[in-house]
Amino acid sequence: MNPPLPHGIRSRFVDGVNGLRMHVLEAGFEAPGRPGVLLLHGFPELAYSWRKVMLPLAQAGYHVMAPDQRGYGLTTGWDGDYDGDVGSFRVLNLVRDAIGLAFALGHRELAAVIGHDFGSPVAAWCALVRPDVFQAVALMSAPFAGAPALPAPSGDGTPPPAPTGVLGAVPNDALAALSRPRKHYQWYYSTRPADADMRRCSQGVHAFLRAYYHVKSADWAENRPFPLRSWAAEELAKMPTYYIMDLARDMAETVAPGMPSPAAIAASRWLPDEELRVYSESFARTGFQGGLNWYRCATDARYAADLQIFSGRTIDVPSTFIAGASDWGPFQKPGLLEQMQASACTRMLGCHFVDGAGHWVQQEQPEETARLLLDFLARAD
């Protein structure tokens, strides 16, 4: 369906972006010469996820651009086959997509890149690799640990540690051995059945996404996040099952018990059913494999090794972090939030947790999110 876009936001296509025909939402496009802001969505989202904050940013004088990223929505030119070109979804190629789009839209530099969920590490790598292009960065929901260390021999003949994916060595064996056997959702998202589990689930894509968005929002009262003490299986299992899943359940089965009532759905202000249908019709058409391929690259040691080239590099442009106060995302990897603030980002101007929001902070609390972003942009200028 055509997205019900607010007046002042347009939809267009940009050809020739790193092999893609990219679908982009734009605001503040009327006057040339405006500083650019690039918005990068996560999973399972679309450019449409930014609809509520685009106009406030444009009204403040910015040219605001939000693409359907590689693997999503109306953007085409990507390989959605599980056995296809998974390497095209590695993070450095996603950075190349972002640079290519900025250049295609007339910007050799941007005032900021802003990323949410899996868009957050892409935004972080944009700022780390090309600070000349991306002059500030806002990370949302997913903290950034910095470039992975380049392993080196110990000097006593002991070989360096075996490489792992960006996620790290997930203790899946230990999770499976718990008295309540579990598995990590990012590992599950990397498996062959994950796409069909969601695309062909018994409740249908629309109901699946309704439950998925609900259980990760502030509307689900059980979201009361706290820092975990370690990466041990017993600690990880304290997180909700949409992160640390029951071993025998797929994601559609995992979130189904969290389906809100018809009355709650009708009362939803931040995601009414006609807006959710933009997502459900899109993912019913494309499937989820494009987005899932991002997770496959994140859990594959080959692609983490590429990032070790930047070992020791930090994000030195102004940065900020924004998340919902009911979001488990900042805490899903123990110590990551602290590492981001202490070492990965050298000019962090703030770390904000927004009341009344869970994981979908820019949709659940758009006014406060836009206020924080505009304050950051003013300070970063």
How is the secondary structure organized here?
Blueprint: E1 9-17, E2 20-27, E3 36-40, H1 51-59, E4 63-67, H2 91-104, E5 112-116, H3 119-129, E6 137-140, H4 172-176, E7 182-184, H5 185-189, H6 194-199, H7 205-215, H8 233-236, E8 244-246, H9 251-255, H10 262-267, H11 273-286, H12 289-298, H13 301-307, E9 319-324, H14 336-344, E10 348-354, H15 361-364, H16 366-380
Parallel strand pairs: 3-4, 3-5, 5-6, 6-9, 9-10
Antiparallel strand pairs: 1-2, 2-4, 7-8
Helix pairs in contact: 1-16, 2-3, 7-11
Summarize the structure.
The protein has helices at 51-59, 91-104, 119-129, 172-176, 185-189, 194-199, 205-215, 233-236, 251-255, 262-267, 273-286, 289-298, 301-307, 336-344, 361-364, 366-380; strands at 9-17, 20-27, 36-40, 63-67, 112-116, 137-140, 182-184, 244-246, 319-324, 348-354. With 381 residues, it is an alpha/beta fold.
Describe this structure in words.
By secondary structure, this protein is of the alpha/beta class. It is built from 16 helices and ten strands. The strands form two sheets. The protein has an eight-stranded mixed beta sheet with strand order 1-2-4-3-5-6-9-10, with helices on both faces. Strand 5 (112-116), helix 3 and strand 6 form a beta-alpha-beta unit. Helix 1 crosses helix 16, helix 2 (91-104) crosses helix 3 (119-129) and helix 7 packs across helix 11 (273-286). The chain starts with 8 loop residues before the first strand and ends with a helix.
